[in-house]
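Lab notebook, bench 4. Still working through the backlog of constructs that have no structural model yet. Next entry is a single chain of 139 residues. Request: give me the structure tokens for it.
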Amino acid sequence: MVNDLDFGKIGYTDRGDWSASYNSGDGYEYLDGVAYDDCYWISLDNDNTQTPSDSATKWHKALSGKAATQAATAANTAAGNANDAATLANQKAGLANTAAQSANEAAEAAAAAVVVAELAPVATESNVRAIVSSFLAGS
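Model written out:
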């Protein structure tokens, strides 16, 4: 018999700034994290509609002070900027690949033009056969 282990929620989920109307007013879930009153709070219960405070029984103050909330905000901003930079880098890489492909096509066209230019003055059947034979012998 296989026993499934349900560990439940094992890490907190950042829900941004606390709001009384979060989740249509149904409140926060166990281990939801919120910023409120210059502190960061972790919900200790499901359907938590309590306002975070030192006397609230359904909240744990994880970080206190304005510096803590500013650090959390700065981290979220940095993550957003990193995602934007990654998106831009992917776009630029796509443009670089397109440019490289165009350059290769232009190089192939130039090489073909050189061959045509070299063959034009010597385009007798015997000269063409000699050039092809010489090319094949060298490869």
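Notes after review: The first strand starts at residue 13 and ends at 17. Residues 71 and 77 are 10 Å apart (CA to CA). Flag for follow-up if needed.
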